[in-house]
Amino acid sequence: MVKDEVMTLVDKGLMLPLMEEFYTIQGEGYHKGTAAYFIRVGGCDVGCHWCDVKESWNADTHPPTAVESIVENAVKYSDTIVITGGEPLTWDMTPLTRALKNKNLKIHIETSGAYTLTGVWDWICLSPKKNKLPKPEIYGVAHELKVIVYNKHDFLFAEQEAAKVNENCILYLQPEWSVREKMIPLIVDYVMKDPKWIVSLQTHKYLNIP
């Protein structure tokens, strides 16, 4: 297949720049501790300086992979699929989620919300970033809001974002891994004073799993 044909399929969401796919335990947020198959899609221009998967940013370094192939692998492992990135909404998620739904799979997404929401989702984890704020429409449908806390100002940002989500959205504060020892005590104190928030930790890193 020639490059132009491939790029046309990528633009339509029929192929995606696949960085990696793996079966593991969800380490964060509401579904932590549960088994899930992760599909990590390359491509992100949000540019968080503390991002722990910066190798996902350049979509050109990840092979365009047919949606059918991705689904064929996913169905072997779990009935819960997590689409992450990078920023998965850089691409049209409609073909992938339709194909996964045809296999009766539950589909979750982890997104900054910086791009238009496409696809069909059972669970939407919105993790907003200051660099590129979410599109307004995603706040109303997000199931959980996960704000990464790198410094004290992030608490103010968290409150600003929490004011935008729907009333059923679950609110999480999660320390950025490299400053966790400094920020965890602050987060614990914050949540104890304002229990609408819940502490989220990257438990998969403590477990030494992907």
Automatic annotation (TrEMBL):
Residues annotated as binding substrate: I25, Q26, G27, R40, T84, P210
Domain of life: Bacteria
Broad EC category: lyase
Cofactor annotation: S-adenosyl-L-methionine; Mg(2+); [4Fe-4S] cluster
Pathways per UniProt: Purine metabolism; 7-cyano-7-deazaguanine biosynthesis
Keywords tagged on the record: 4Fe-4S, Iron, Iron-sulfur, Lyase, Magnesium, Metal-binding, Queuosine biosynthesis, S-adenosyl-L-methionine
GO molecular function: 4 iron, 4 sulfur cluster binding; carbon-nitrogen lyase activity; magnesium ion binding; S-adenosyl-L-methionine binding
Quaternary context: Homodimer.
PANTHER family: 7-CARBOXY-7-DEAZAGUANINE SYNTHASE
Protein's name according to its UniProt entry: 7-carboxy-7-deazaguanine synthase
